[in-house]
Amino acid sequence: MENPRDTSPLTADAWVRRMRSWGVRPSKSKGQNFLLDHEVVARIADAAGISPGDRIVEIGPGLGVLTEELLRRGANLTAIELDDSLAPHLKRHFHDEPAFRLIHGDATSVTPIDVVASDVPFRIVANLPYSVATRIIRHWLESEHPPIELVVMVQQEVADRMTAAAGDMSLLGLAIQLHTHAEYLFAVPSEAFHPPPKVTSAVVRLRTTNNQSMDRQATERLFQLATIAFRHKRKTIANSLSRDLEIDKATLVDRLNDAGIDGTLRPQALDLDTWIRLSRIELDLT
Ligand code: SAM
């Protein structure tokens, strides 16, 4: 290919022509809704703030729309594409671009340390396949070599849950905010894609926070408690936890009070710090 740094972005029609010439029929099961609106592509790249030489992992390059923009801005890019029919085209198309490397594989199961060396900081920039977006994000965030930041497009409802504040907290919100500062950036209408998805999309920035106080065991404890509490969203945390953990309610309420936690709250009302304090209360979870 011509070096993307020397070429202008393609029009939406030209991307559809590329799709046809590659013989690609968008697959629903692989979440193939290709982004064709260059303004949106540029906004994602702006949000990622690429400087020449930055190590970027792009998950699901598809036709290479975002890939070309990231390369144009000087990224050193590793793309991971699952689709057997797209991978050979991507390899051929980008073969003379030295800053591009393709891994033909599944982003939910590759080992991040095999993709980027353990001492090299990297970011993920992607328009994710929606059905596995949270699995992909958690797989990378909870790995031994997490990215320092992710700028990713997901379905709007998932973006809302990942970035929710106390009052709308969910298990997903907790899982994401335990590892990152999560920020909602902007919505993207379905007309920006081919074929248009049935849902609105949104871009989020997840900046890894390195929560030193939470080791693996502490994190597991937190999720054990949160899973119980979110199982009964309409119940107060004191009621759900005392019932499922078979603890006397008055004793539990005393321990919650000692930790400065109001046991009459429902699980979605607690923010991350409160969940962390709750996970430190002495309770038998076995
Ligand atoms: N980045 C392109 C764009 O913006 O037009 C394509 C985005 S499309 C929403 C999702 C892409 O992820 C598709 O190319 C699909 O084949 C790929 N994909 C789906 N599941 C995947 C997985 N588990 N690992 C890697 N890529 C995957």
Descriptive report:
The chain is of the alpha/beta class and 286 residues long. The chain folds into 2 domains: 12-208, Vaccinia Virus protein VP39 (Rossmann fold); 216-279, Helicase, Ruva Protein, domain 3 (Orthogonal Bundle). The protein is 37% helix and 17% strand. The protein has 12 helices and 9 strands. It has helices at residues 12-21, 38-48, 65-72, 86-93, 112-115, 133-141, 156-162, 171-177, 216-231, 237-244, 249-258, 272-279; strands at residues 34-35, 55-59, 76-81, 100-104, 123-127, 149-155, 180-188, 193-194, 201-208. The strands form 2 sheets. The protein has a 7-stranded mixed sheet with strand order 4-3-2-5-6-9-7, sandwiched between helices. Helix 9 packs across helix 10 and helix 10 (237-244) crosses helix 11 (249-258). The mean pLDDT is 95. The structure holds S-adenosylmethionine.
Helix content: 25-40%
The proportion of strand residues reads 15-25%
Bound molecules: S-adenosylmethionine
CATH class of the largest domain: Alpha Beta
Please name the CATH topology of the largest domain. Rossmann fold
Q: How many helices?
A: 12
Briefly characterize the structure.
It is built from twelve helices and nine strands. With 286 residues, it is of the alpha/beta class. Helix 4 links the parallel strand 3 and strand 4.
Key terms:
two-stranded antiparallel ribbon; Helicase, Ruva Protein, domain 3; alpha/beta; binds S-adenosylmethionine; elongated; 286 residues; 9 strands; Rossmann fold; 17% strand; 2 domains; seven-stranded mixed sheet
